[in-house]
Amino acid sequence: MNKLLIVESPTKARTITRMLGRDYDVLASMGHVRDLPEHSFGVDIEHDFQPEYVDTPRSAKVIRELRAAAKKADEIYLAPDPDREGEAIAWHLQEVLKSSNNKPFHRVTFHEITRSAIENALKNQTTVNLDLVDAQQARRVLDRIVGYQVSPLLWSRLEKGISAGRVQSVAVRLVVERERAITAFVPEEYWNFQLVCRTRDGKEFVTELHKIDGADFRIPDDAGAEKLVKALKAGSVPRVTSITSQPRRRNAPPPFTTSTLQQAASNQLHFTASSTMTYAQKLYEGIDLGQAGQAGLITYMRTDSVNIAKEAQSAALNFIRSTYGKDYAPARPNIFRNKASAQEAHEAIRPTDVRRTPEMVAPYLDAPLLKLYTLIWRRFVASQMSPAVQQLTTADVEITAKDRRVATFRATATVPVFPGFTAVFNDAAKRKDETEEAAILGTLREGDAVEPGEFRQEQKFTEPPPRYTEASLIKELEENGIGRPSTYATIMKTIVLRGYVTRDQGKLVPSELGCRVVDFLVLHLPQLFDVGFTAGMEEKLDAVERGEIGWTKMMHEFYDQFMPWMASAKLADAPPESDADALISQLDKVKFAPAEKVGRRTYDDRKFYTSIRDKYKETRAMTSKQYEALVNLAARYQNQLSSGDLPENLAEKMRSAGKAAEERREKAAAMAASETEQADYRKLFAAFDGVKWEAPVTRRGRVYDDEKFFDSLKKQASGGRKLSGKQLAALGKIAEKYAEGLTDRELISRMLGLAPETSAGTAALPSGDLKGIFDALSAVKKWAEPVKRGRFTFNDKEFYESLRGQFFNGKKLSEKQVAALKKLAARYLEK
């Protein structure tokens, strides 16, 4: 029986193939095979938000291969990742392949790539979960609608090319608001106090002022600090009023979820969220462990659950008992509580086999992968261990000051009793151990008098909230219910790539553009980019996933709110109706010029005006952009208008627009080439007609295409615009490079500043080696004057002498230098 199993990635396919053997044909879909179109909206609002799916740019070949395999298959297993995106990929694969095979499709999911997990998944096959597909589809359509509606608004009000994202923009808002809180922060002064005390046998311990008259305190300045210290020094003898010693338990932390892994990797390893997910993906999909074969080292890395499978928990406890001792394994397995929105069916991120210690897999992992695996392995093992126990000793010492205030000073000392889960981190040197201090405090008894030593006072200032790091921003998003495990890394990457946020020593700093975008969105679309509203939409998507609400119903509810918000935003800075009416009234009298075609575009003032006017009369609404366009139009025809009939502010706008238009005309005129120049340009570009252009080349990621660049200059000149000095200099370099194919050398020399040939045609170079060329050029009596093009000055004589010195000093000339020398010789040497 021929069985086809489809996963997303080739690495995952290779790992599973080695486990399942020849019984299965395992292929990769390379991610999504269908998606919304890249360059069009792709959503039919009128028909229940029906998405228009198209094959992704790279999927054509993959689909052909999958269809060919599906035709031969007796059974097809869809095995993308166990989350919304994976379920959507499985559904799209089913839709694409069902015409190639009338057999039923089986959905299989596993949270780790191990033989047992895969075999168990194949035994428990299901069908595609359409609720999960709907949730993914709803998110995709929701984001497309917001992006396609809001981004053009930003283009018209701020600048072209920028965009808004439903979730990303909220993340940028958090960063901007934090930065402004930092800027607005005013430090406040406060003072801390310490008292060094001595016991009867002369041993010292340090206490800190804890309370005054049994309450928290704040001393705001040095005068208050001096007054307090003076009163304390003149007060009563310090006495011990309380001494306690009690155990303190620190429970093990839960295993990693996606967000906590990204936070820990950022804080401890300085990985970006995107890098963390890339490395985790590799660990999940499979690593070649030599003789042990290919194996996935961790469970699925996109999860918000802290659940652990019973088998994994049992294996961890056995490992802990054998490695650390039975006291390190709790009597009952540790259980951690999930947050309300977590997917209970998922597991936390853990090693697939706890016996594979970091030391065992180190030979097979590069440095970043080993660091991340170590982080995950230690956190999982620690999560299954007993609590750490410390003994905390606390002593309170009171002084009644001269001004009758009662000051309570406190000393504490912590002594490790049992390391528990902390043993796995190998950080005994870092753990707090104050055994000596605890021993001193242990000798004290309530009512004991102690000898006061030095009073210390320290000036402090409150600090502003810290800038977000990727770790703290992800934590903030998660705590506010924004985003999901699959989106955090994408959010971080997107806000940086779009230039809204920059990284500065690991901190996230909003750019000027980011601040402007946030200000605009918060001012004009406050509800849409509200933290609470965004979190509410995430909850609705979760409800779709649980099957509690239909995705189209959710979309209708959103759209009915969204469109009035957009309409309001578009008209937020609209002109007063009276101004719009006055402008329309004046423009109705204008006799517009006939339509004019410039290049491929036709400019028809009347058609443009009537389209805006008719829409305005229908809706009584005009955007600021439309208003400005009509003002500019009116300024063009102001000689036909009566400014006395216009409101003064509108008349002033027209005068300003007219002045600006005149400046643009003057600038355009200055850029325009004269008839003589245009004639020269035509001859100049005609001189290149015989050139055989070299193929484009790529250097350091940039494509250099001489013909394309030449054509762009020709098009500019043909349109009547002057070429700049820099452009002429670049054209001169092209002329030198393709000298053999040029005609009318005299014109080229005059316009581009190149040295003329000494005789017609291409000069013959001396035969023989380079020495012969240098000897021949040494006879040149008159060199061309230096020519300045752009930032560079070209001096043929200096260039020749430089190459000659290099050659006769025994240094080899490069290919470019030899070619340049030959071109120089071609210009100066006669046949």
Main attributes?
extended, 831 residues, four-stranded parallel β-sheet, alpha+beta, six-stranded antiparallel β-sheet
In words, what does this structure look like?
- The chain has 831 residues and is of the alpha+beta class.
- Helix content is 46%, strand content 15%.
- It has 29 helices and 24 strands.
- The strands form 9 sheets. It has a 6-stranded antiparallel sheet, with helices on one face.
- β12 and β13 form a beta hairpin.
- The longest helix is centred in the N-terminal third of the chain and has 28 residues, at 130-157.
- The model is unreliable at 757-768 (pLDDT under 50).
What structural class do helix, strand and pairing data support? alpha+beta
Report on the biggest sheet: 6 strands, antiparallel
Overall outline: extended
Q: Count of DSSP helices?
A: 29
Would you identify the regions where 5 or more consecutive residues have pLDDT less than 50? 757-768
How large is the radius of gyration? 38 Å
Chain oligomer state: single chain
Distance between the termini: 81 Å
Mean pLDDT: 88
* Quantity of strands, as a count: 24
Summarize the structure.
By secondary structure, this protein is an alpha+beta fold.
Give the helices and strands, then pairings.
Elements: E1 3-7, H1 10-20, E2 24-28, E3 34-35, E4 43-44, E5 50-51, E6 54-55, H2 59-72, E7 75-78, H3 84-97, E8 105-107, H4 115-123, H5 130-157, H6 168-184, E9 189-198, E10 204-212, H7 222-233, E11 239-250, H8 258-269, H9 273-285, E12 287-288, E13 294-295, H10 310-324, H11 358-361, H12 367-383, E14 388-400, E15 406-418, H13 435-442, E16 451-461, H14 470-479, H15 488-497, E17 501-504, E18 507-510, H16 512-524, H17 531-545, H18 551-570, H19 577-587, E19 596-598, E20 601-603, H20 605-619, H21 624-636, H22 648-671, H23 675-686, E21 697-699, E22 702-704, H24 706-718, H25 725-737, H26 745-752, H27 770-777, E23 787-789, E24 792-794, H28 796-808, H29 815-828
Parallel strand pairs: 1-2, 1-7, 7-8
Antiparallel strand pairs: 3-6, 4-5, 9-10, 9-16, 10-15, 11-14, 12-13, 14-15, 17-18, 19-20, 21-22, 23-24
Helix pairs in contact: 3-5, 5-17, 5-18, 6-15, 6-16, 8-12, 8-14, 9-12, 9-15, 19-21, 21-22, 27-29
